Amino acid sequence: MPTLYIIATPIGNLEDITYRAVRVLGEVDIVLCEDTRMTKKLLDHYNISAKTVSYNSHATSGKTDFIINLLKERKNVALVSDAGTPAISDPGVMLVKAVREALPEALISPIPGPSAVIAALSASGFPSSEYVFLGFLPHKKGRETLFREIATSERTMAFYESPHRILKTITSLVEHCPEKQIMLAREITKIYEEFPSGTASELLEYFKQYPDRLRGEFVVLVAN
Q: For residues 207 and 189, what is the distance between their CA atoms, to the nearest angstrom?
């Protein structure tokens, strides 16, 4: 059977990849990448000379058809994102859905590994037997509705945020849930990894004191 491998890749430290992932990346016919330049750094690190093809949020239906035809030709294909697990808040979900619909006989095999939200939860000390993952919050429409949901939730809430909007997000958390405990996971597995925590007001004060730390992608956790 042709196989589409969904391969989790490091979110920072290049050592955070499984033996199986390295082996499969070296064996497949094509590696589909969110950004071929980013993936090349990983492949070069492990001396893998795989053929790469871009597949991201700008992929056309023609690109999807091309990949489905590769699978029909019994080629084995790997899907990776720039970092973490593909198809989780990631355009790879479009390909997985298309392959399942167009080629139900194909095998879709996940090779698990790094995930920023799971890594953040593991280091938080917040309840994680039940949590709600919101992905990236919308920039405008529906954003305030989600903050109201976060404020009233009885579960840990988790979402991603960019450095350009993190202060705006913390300010909204001050308004909607000023008493809740929050943890921000930044630069996970990298040199400047940190996990500042406290109330939203305390975190605003933290970044006033350390404005240079408003860099990198954030995982935001709000305790129940």
A: 21
- Pseudo-torsion of CA 168, 89, 16, 99, nearest 10°? -170
Angle 201-207-212 from CA coordinates, rounded to 5°: 170
CATH number of 116-222: 3.30.950.10
Tell me how far apart the alpha carbons of residues 158 and 199 are, in angstroms, rounded to a whole number.
Answer: 15
> Do 149 and 221 touch, CB atoms closer than 8 A?
no
The token pair that represents 124 in the structure block: 């938080």
> What is d(CA 113, CA 86) in angstroms, rounded to the nearest whole number?
10
The 10 Å Cβ neighbour count of residue 67 is 24
61 pLDDT exceeds 90?
Answer: no
**In this structure, which topology does domain 3-111 adopt according to CATH?**
Cobalt-precorrin-4 Transmethylase; domain 1 (3.40.1010)
What whole-number distance in Å separates Cα of residue 93 and Cα of residue 221? 24
67-104, pLDDT tens digit by residue? Answer: 999 999 999 999 999 999 999 988 899 999 999 999 99
pTM over 0.85, yes/no? yes
Domain with CATH 3.30.950.10 in the chain: 116-222
Q: Report the C-alpha gap between 92 and 130 in whole angstroms.
A: 25
